[in-house]
Amino acid sequence: MNFLFFGQFFDRLNEGGPVFMYPLFLMMLICIGLIIFSFVKGDASGKLQKIVHHVGLFALVWGFLGQMIGLIGAFDSISIANDVSPQVLAGGLKVALLCPTYGMFIFLIARLGIIGLTLKKN
Protein backbone atom coordinates (compact mmCIF):
# COMPACT_ATOMS: atom_id res chain seq x y z
CA MET A 1 0.00 0.00 0.00
CA ASN A 2 1.24 3.43 -0.73
CA PHE A 3 0.43 6.84 0.64
CA LEU A 4 -1.81 7.60 -2.34
CA PHE A 5 -4.29 4.96 -1.16
CA PHE A 6 -4.49 6.50 2.30
CA GLY A 7 -4.92 9.96 0.80
CA GLN A 8 -7.81 8.75 -1.35
CA PHE A 9 -9.33 6.95 1.64
CA PHE A 10 -9.35 10.10 3.77
CA ASP A 11 -10.58 12.15 0.80
CA ARG A 12 -13.61 9.83 0.65
CA LEU A 13 -14.15 10.25 4.38
CA ASN A 14 -14.18 14.03 3.96
CA GLU A 15 -16.32 13.83 0.83
CA GLY A 16 -18.96 11.73 2.58
CA GLY A 17 -19.24 14.28 5.37
CA PRO A 18 -16.81 14.20 8.28
CA VAL A 19 -19.61 14.47 10.85
CA PHE A 20 -20.83 11.00 9.88
CA MET A 21 -17.82 9.37 8.24
CA TYR A 22 -15.23 9.87 10.99
CA PRO A 23 -17.46 8.32 13.69
CA LEU A 24 -18.01 5.44 11.27
CA PHE A 25 -14.25 5.09 10.90
CA LEU A 26 -13.93 5.01 14.69
CA MET A 27 -16.67 2.35 14.89
CA MET A 28 -14.78 0.27 12.34
CA LEU A 29 -11.60 0.49 14.40
CA ILE A 30 -13.54 -0.48 17.54
CA CYS A 31 -15.10 -3.50 15.82
CA ILE A 32 -11.79 -4.70 14.40
CA GLY A 33 -10.01 -4.13 17.70
CA LEU A 34 -12.64 -6.00 19.72
CA ILE A 35 -12.70 -8.88 17.25
CA ILE A 36 -8.92 -9.24 17.35
CA PHE A 37 -8.90 -8.94 21.15
CA SER A 38 -11.61 -11.61 21.41
CA PHE A 39 -9.70 -14.00 19.17
CA VAL A 40 -6.45 -13.50 21.09
CA LYS A 41 -7.66 -13.29 24.69
CA GLY A 42 -10.98 -15.07 24.43
CA ASP A 43 -14.48 -13.99 25.34
CA ALA A 44 -15.96 -16.58 27.67
CA SER A 45 -18.89 -14.39 28.73
CA GLY A 46 -19.80 -13.32 25.19
CA LYS A 47 -19.85 -9.68 26.26
CA LEU A 48 -17.34 -8.51 23.63
CA GLN A 49 -19.26 -10.36 20.93
CA LYS A 50 -22.43 -8.51 21.93
CA ILE A 51 -20.57 -5.18 21.85
CA VAL A 52 -19.27 -5.94 18.34
CA HIS A 53 -22.84 -6.81 17.34
CA HIS A 54 -24.22 -3.55 18.71
CA VAL A 55 -21.44 -1.34 17.31
CA GLY A 56 -21.83 -2.94 13.87
CA LEU A 57 -25.58 -2.39 13.88
CA PHE A 58 -25.13 1.17 15.12
CA ALA A 59 -22.67 1.82 12.28
CA LEU A 60 -25.23 0.63 9.76
CA VAL A 61 -27.97 2.86 11.16
CA TRP A 62 -25.57 5.81 11.54
CA GLY A 63 -24.63 5.52 7.86
CA PHE A 64 -28.26 5.57 6.76
CA LEU A 65 -28.97 8.51 9.07
CA GLY A 66 -26.12 10.39 7.39
CA GLN A 67 -27.62 9.61 4.01
CA MET A 68 -31.09 10.80 4.99
CA ILE A 69 -29.82 14.07 6.46
CA GLY A 70 -27.64 14.63 3.39
CA LEU A 71 -30.48 13.92 0.99
CA ILE A 72 -32.84 16.25 2.84
CA GLY A 73 -30.28 19.05 2.55
CA ALA A 74 -29.67 18.24 -1.12
CA PHE A 75 -33.36 18.21 -1.95
CA ASP A 76 -33.78 21.54 -0.16
CA SER A 77 -31.05 22.99 -2.37
CA ILE A 78 -32.57 21.46 -5.50
CA SER A 79 -36.01 22.86 -4.68
CA ILE A 80 -34.53 26.36 -4.33
CA ALA A 81 -32.44 26.16 -7.52
CA ASN A 82 -34.04 26.89 -10.85
CA ASP A 83 -31.82 24.63 -12.92
CA VAL A 84 -29.98 21.52 -11.77
CA SER A 85 -27.82 19.62 -14.24
CA PRO A 86 -27.79 15.83 -14.27
CA GLN A 87 -24.05 15.91 -13.47
CA VAL A 88 -24.63 17.86 -10.28
CA LEU A 89 -27.48 15.56 -9.29
CA ALA A 90 -25.41 12.43 -9.97
CA GLY A 91 -22.49 13.83 -7.98
CA GLY A 92 -24.77 14.59 -5.05
CA LEU A 93 -26.28 11.11 -5.11
CA LYS A 94 -22.79 9.59 -5.18
CA VAL A 95 -21.84 11.54 -2.06
CA ALA A 96 -25.11 10.55 -0.41
CA LEU A 97 -24.30 6.87 -0.93
CA LEU A 98 -20.89 7.01 0.76
CA CYS A 99 -22.19 6.96 4.35
CA PRO A 100 -24.52 3.97 4.06
CA THR A 101 -21.99 2.06 1.97
CA TYR A 102 -19.32 2.55 4.62
CA GLY A 103 -21.84 1.67 7.35
CA MET A 104 -22.76 -1.55 5.52
CA PHE A 105 -19.07 -2.40 5.13
CA ILE A 106 -18.53 -2.00 8.88
CA PHE A 107 -21.66 -4.05 9.57
CA LEU A 108 -20.26 -6.84 7.39
CA ILE A 109 -16.90 -6.72 9.18
CA ALA A 110 -18.72 -7.00 12.52
CA ARG A 111 -20.89 -9.87 11.27
CA LEU A 112 -17.90 -11.79 9.89
CA GLY A 113 -16.11 -11.29 13.20
CA ILE A 114 -19.13 -12.56 15.13
CA ILE A 115 -19.36 -15.61 12.86
CA GLY A 116 -15.67 -16.30 13.42
CA LEU A 117 -15.98 -15.91 17.17
CA THR A 118 -19.01 -18.20 17.22
CA LEU A 119 -17.13 -20.84 15.24
CA LYS A 120 -14.15 -20.50 17.59
CA LYS A 121 -16.34 -21.20 20.63
CA ASN A 122 -17.64 -24.51 19.28
UniProtKB/TrEMBL annotation:
InterPro entries according to UniProt:
MotA_ExbB_proton_chnl (IPR002898)
Cite the Pfam families for this sequence.
MotA_ExbB (PF01618)
**Location relative to the cell:** Cell membrane; Membrane
Report keywords, A-Z. Cell membrane, Membrane, Protein transport, Transmembrane, Transmembrane helix, Transport
Membrane topology qualifier: Multi-pass membrane protein
Q: Which terms does the UniProt entry file under GO BP?
A: protein transport
| Chief place of localization | membrane
Q: Where is the MotA/TolQ/ExbB proton channel domain?
A: 49-109
Segments traversing the membrane: 20-40, 52-75, 95-119
One Gene Ontology term, aspect cellular component: plasma membrane
Family recorded in the similarity comment: Belongs to the exbB/tolQ family.
Indicate what this protein is called per its UniProt record.
Answer: MotA/TolQ/ExbB proton channel domain-containing protein
